[in-house]
Design goal:
Rossmann fold; globular; seven-stranded mixed β-sheet; 23% strand; 7 strands; alpha/beta
């Protein structure tokens, strides 16, 4: 994802997390978010990532991390053992996003999910005019060389949450288009959702 969008995503997520919270980041990458929360908000943090290099980077950043495949579950965490579970720009890279969210809702009191939006107007334009999968600043991969398994829209995410009975409490549209709040599915490049158990 483009740096400007990453920064916007980062800002939205950090604004949602209260000081001294217990935070689990699924697919934490280099641990930038967790390091910030630990230093700036005195949060107790834990990261999980499958990549050995990302785990090494987390350790270098003094971020506690476990090298695990998210798809294998988190049975070793007790119910509601975290105040927040973050799934940032990771949903499209797992085989069963619904199961991941269900497990995140089990271990976390609140879940923050950030998702790409394939229905963003620039992506739609590329598909319509070029007849090709979009290659944009928020989806910078060629279709044949991407870590993304599932690409969907904001509306797709709403639909999945409804079918799976996941309760969305807030939605924060991301990107720089001035109409993003008017029509999230068309004008937001990504959105950040907060979810809670029923």
């Amino acid at each position: 994802m483009h740096k400007q969008l990453l920064d916007a995503n980062f800002s939205i997520i950090t604004s949602l997390i209260k000081e001294k919270s217990r935070v689990l980041d699924l697919g934490c990458g280099k641990g930038k978010l967790l390091k910030h929360l630990k230093l700036e908000k005195s949060c107790e943090v834990q990261g999980i990532d499958v990549s050995q290099q990302e785990v090494i980077d987390c350790i270098a950043n003094a971020v506690p991390v476990l090298q695990l495949d998210l798809e294998e579950g988190m049975s070793f965490f007790q119910d509601k053992s975290f105040d927040f579970v973050v799934i940032s720009q990771t949903m499209q890279q797992v085989h069963n996003p619904d199961k991941l969210i269900r497990e995140a809702l089990r271990v976390g009191k609140k879940v923050i999910v950030s998702v790409h939006n394939l229905a963003y107007w620039k992506s739609r334009l590329q598909i319509t005019l070029k007849g090709m999968m979009p290659n944009t600043k928020h989806l910078p991969y060629e279709w044949y060389n991407t870590p993304n398994i599932h690409l969907g829209s904001i509306r797709d995410f709403y639909s999945m949450c409804e079918k799976e009975s996941f309760r969305i409490t807030h939605v924060y549209p991301g990107g720089d288009h001035f109409l993003k709040s008017f029509n999230k599915n068309l004008f937001s490049e990504f959105s950040v959702f907060t979810l809670e158990s029923h």
